Amino acid sequence: MITPPTGRLAFSRYACVQGPGIDARWHKIPARHRGTDLRSEYANLLLLPWPLRVQATDFHPVGPVLRQAKNPYGFFQFAPAEGLDLDLLDRVLVAARQESGSVDVVLLPESAVAEDEIDDLETLLDHHGVIQLVAGVRQPTRQPGQFSGNWLHMGFNPRLEELE
Fold first, then answer.
1. Region 51-69: what's the mean pLDDT?
2. pLDDT at 36
3. N or C: less crowded end of the chain, CB within 10 Å?
4. How would you classify the pairing of strands 45-47 and 105-114?
5. Vertex 49, ends 78 and 91: CA angle to 5°?
6. What is the dihedral of CA 126, 129, 134, 138, to 10 degrees?
7. What is the pLDDT of residue 75?
8. What 3-state DSSP class applies to 34?
9. What is the pLDDT of residue 11?
10. Quick one: pLDDT at residue 10?
11. CB-count burial class (<10 Å; 0-12, 13-18, 19+) for 125
């Protein structure tokens, strides 16, 4: 096992949690009432595989390879050439809503969304009535040799605050 450079406990072999803390706000998600419609008993989740293409050139080393002789490892930044395609996502949401009636939650994988794309993504989801976004977010390195950020973003439709 490798101890992360921060010295903090690792949840998996090569991952660790770093940061000052978590800012939590609690919201009740509006639930549909049982018995009104068969589909009303379930939430509709849309899982989006983004980016659609992952290439070797999307990965960039950050710092040297460490412990090359025994169990080598290193750090990298994931920076895909393509950004989030909001026009394509809009068309996918329209098609999903036509098929299922609504999309309640949108899920995107680890590092799928750049930090500066979250606001535009949430605006689009609000337009389609999506209640929740769960997305892996990537943050580019700010200085040479610095690690890039990678975290989970959970966003809730701002209209939820009006419903409480």
1. 83
2. 58
3. N
4. parallel
5. 120
6. -30
7. 80
8. coil
9. 46
10. 44
11. buried
What's the pLDDT at 34?
53
Secondary element (H or E) of residue 59: strand 59-61
Note whether 147 and 75 are within 8 A (CB).
yes
Query: With contact defined as beta carbons under 8 Å apart, do 133 and 106 qualify?
Result: yes
Domain ranges for the chain: 38-163
Give the DSSP per-residue string, 102-156.
---EEEEEEEEEEGGGHHHHHHHHHHTT--EEEEEEEE--SSTTPPPEEEEEEEE
Q: Output the CA–CA distances (angstroms, integers) from residue 79 to 27, 59, 102, 150, in the order listed.
A: 33, 6, 32, 11
Which residue bears the tokens 């290193």? 74
